[in-house]
Design brief:
Elements: E1 3-7, H1 14-23, E2 27-32, H2 35-42, H3 54-65, E3 69-73, H4 79-87, E4 106-109, H5 116-119, H6 123-147, E5 152-158, E6 173-178, E7 181-186, H7 194-213, E8 216-222, E9 225-226, H8 252-262, E10 266-269, E11 275-280, H9 281-293, E12 301-306, E13 309-312, H10 313-326, E14 333-336, H11 354-357, H12 367-378
Parallel strand pairs: 1-2, 1-4, 2-3, 4-5, 5-8, 8-12, 9-11, 10-14
Antiparallel strand pairs: 6-7, 11-13
Helix pairs in contact: 4-6, 6-7, 8-10
Bound molecules: nicotinamide-adenine-dinucleotide.
Length: about 400
């Protein structure tokens, strides 16, 4: 049985991934310190519905399926805590059997502060983002180097690392010819927020570990994720993942859906020509699974561009508006002054063949998918607080 350690297991992507791998009979351990929930509380941001804490969810999962997801609650910025997950001294906060899970074959690293607007609020939130994301990544890298060099690290990066250059975006690498000589480098990156800049620095740290100590790393350049339900979350209401619809943590498609249900105009920044690559939550999990099934060789860094289709923000708003109207919602689009520093019209042509080549079967943003999400969000209409939707964090 393969052994997987999931860092950030309480999160939007971490918990559905934990259930997916547990259901596939992997031995799963999840770790989290509730940073995401704590920031939401501090900023008075409520989620669309309440979700039991990680220990409760692991208990419910075990009761319903008989499968064990071990839970360790702790701050991964604490290097001794991270090392305890690798040297066998960890104390689980919940487990069906308290016996040490053993060295992980794979670590999936989700445990970061993932919000661009949060990182841009002020110097304190920028500092938290930088120290949290870089120290967690560095602690993980050292623990793998010191205890388990064979472990494959699957790291969630972001398409935002590339920015919006005026040339085609390749998958991670670019061959450059200069003064008659050639070499291959990591594709030039130019992020648009402090958060995205930490993701570039994460990639650089791990690339150093790969070159220097022969680590095996896959870095997934992921686009904004949308969706709620996965096969496993359908087993029981209490197993659904966390869902934010505010400007700080809500990703754009999830946010627009809630805005449409609440009768709040869809807030398009500037002209809405910003193009990004998007991915369904079920495909995120598929991509991680495919990456684990196809690990890099020792001393190699795999970089995959992880999204399935591109849209401008205006196209997304129009698509969601048209379905909202069909479903009887009164839905308007409002073009507002862009609080961010970003290009609103730009070239965007991204190579994303690798994961398709490994067997990814995309779930596209169809009318059926959107209607399913509308139905789901509609059940929680009474919980929506309009005052948290837009805060206007400026760059
Ligand atoms: N959701 C997206 O659209 C998206 C897009 C691109 C990339 N990503 C990346 O994917 C990863 C997961 O994203 P998500 O949307 O699930 O975010 P999330 O905030 O829901 O999940 C991250 C989890 O990590 C935990 N965490 C953070 N710092 C920690 C620490 N020091 N110790 C222990 N736990 C800690 C948080 O409490 C949270 O539960 C992130 O690295 C993010 O940058 C997400």
């Amino acid at each position: 049985m393969e052994n997987i350690l999931i860092l950030g297991g309480d999160g939007y992507l971490g918990w559905p991934s934990a259930m997916f791998f547990s259901n596939k009979r992997y031995k799963v351990t999840v770790v989290d310190n509730y940073l995401r929930r704590d920031i939401c509380k501090k900023l008075d941001i409520s989620m669309l519905y309440n979700v039991p804490n990680l220990i409760e969810r692991a208990r419910i999962w075990h009761k319903l399926t008989g499968l064990e997801i071990k839970v360790a609650i702790g701050d991964l910025q604490d290097s001794e805590f991270v090392r305890s997950l690798f040297n066998g001294t960890v104390k689980y906060d919940w487990a069906a059997s308290k016996e040490y899970a053993g060295l992980p074959d794979t670590v999936i690293h989700f445990a970061e502060m993932p919000s661009a607007p949060y990182s841009m609020m002020d110097y304190r939130t920028a500092n938290l983002t930088i120290s949290n994301n870089l120290i967690v990544t560095n602690n993980l890298m050292y623990a793998v180097k010191d205890f388990s060099v064979e472990t494959h690290i699957v790291k969630l990066g972001t398409m935002g690392e590339y920015g919006t250059p005026n040339i085609d975006i390749e998958e991670g690498w670019l061959e450059i010819e200069h003064n008659g000589r050639k070499d291959k480098f990591i594709y030039p990156r130019q992020a648009g927020s402090i958060y995205h800049t930490t993701k570039i620095m994460d990639t650089d740290l791990l690339w150093f570990g790969v070159r220097t100590w022969g680590l095996k790393v896959t870095d997934l350049m992921q686009g904004p994720v949308y969706g709620i339900e996965t096969e496993e979350s359908k087993i029981d209401e209490r197993l659904k993942t966390i869902f934010n619809y505010d400007e700080i943590f809500g990703t754009v498609i999830n946010r627009f859906l809630v805005q449409a249900v609440a009768g709040y105009p869809l807030t398009v920044y500037g002209a809405g020509g910003q193009t990004r690559g998007y991915i369904n939550i079920n495909d995120t999990i598929q991509c991680i699974y495919l990456s684990i099934k196809n690990p890099p060789a020792e001393g190699e860094l795999n970089i995959y561009n992880q999204f399935t289709e591109t849209f401008t923000v205006k196209e997304l708003a129009e698509q969601i508006q048209s379905i909202a109207i069909k479903l009887g919602y009164d839905c308007n689009i409002s073009l507002i002054k862009n609080p961010r520093k970003e290009l609103e019209n730009h070239y965007y042509n991204v190579n994303h063949k690798s994961l398709l080549g490994l067997g990814l079967k995309p779930h596209y943003l169809t009318e059926k998918v959107l209607k399913g999400m509308f139905k789901f969000v509609g059940k929680f209409k009474e919980n929506i607080k309009k005052d948290i939707i837009f805060k206007g964090v400026k760059w």
